[in-house]
Amino acid sequence: MSDRSEVPNYASLARLDGRVFVVLGGGAGIGRQSCHALAQAGAKVVCVDREAVLATDVAKEIGGIGLSGDVTVRADMLRLFAEAQERAGPVRGVVDIVGIASLGPLAGIDDARWKWQFDMVLNHAFLAIQIGGQAIAEAGGGAMVFVASMSGIVNLPGQAAYGAAKASLIHLVSSMSKELAPKVRINAVAPGFVRTPRLNQMLSEEKWSEIAKIIPVGAAARPSEIAAPILFLASDMASHVTGQTLLVDGGIVDTVRMPSLTS
User: Fold this and answer.
1) Residue 72: C-alpha distances to residues 34, 101, 124, 127 (Å)
2) Is the pLDDT of residue 263 over 70?
3) Annotated catalytic sites, by residue?
4) How many domains does the chain divide into?
């Protein structure tokens, strides 16, 4: 029997024309690239960053709107989404990049640092889902994409607190995909090593070369290589994808470093 099922316009599924997207942590790195990716797909982008200058600069680059605030504070998150809706229109999507790592042995992390780590990774995501998810549902539906980490999937030295927070974020995304369905899809990407401006300041070129040697694809990711799958998950290309965390790590998580077993 021949197949006569409808063939969609696949290219149009990648378009976000006229949809308002709020990007939390959009001022640099993966966030800035995500703002550009969404804007190129036709979205109206509201770039949010704690540093007003960064948010404004990226907004100017893409013809969007720049807002500043502390996304770990409920009052600020409420204000940001209210202002986004007032200035851009009903929100149809959220991309959340926020999530700085506190590195070091768990024994050296005090209560304040532990709380800060979970505020930066998990607690603000809780606010984004509550407030942003409601805004999207009221607008008729859309998508949310969070940035997790391979640290939430595998154990990495000195990342117990960060990994615990990211693992919790991955579980939150999975759980909330059921609560928000069918109007809101929610997914995450889990990057491996990414050459963000922050990490480029921390690591030398020599160190990056060492890292590249253990990544099967031969290099750490550029921020744009994380923004691309974020765009996919935000678009109708991923209309049947929800509750998932897409590992974007160049293959490093599945790599086992072994000594030679032959002479």
Assistant:
1) 21, 15, 5, 8
2) no
3) 162
4) 1
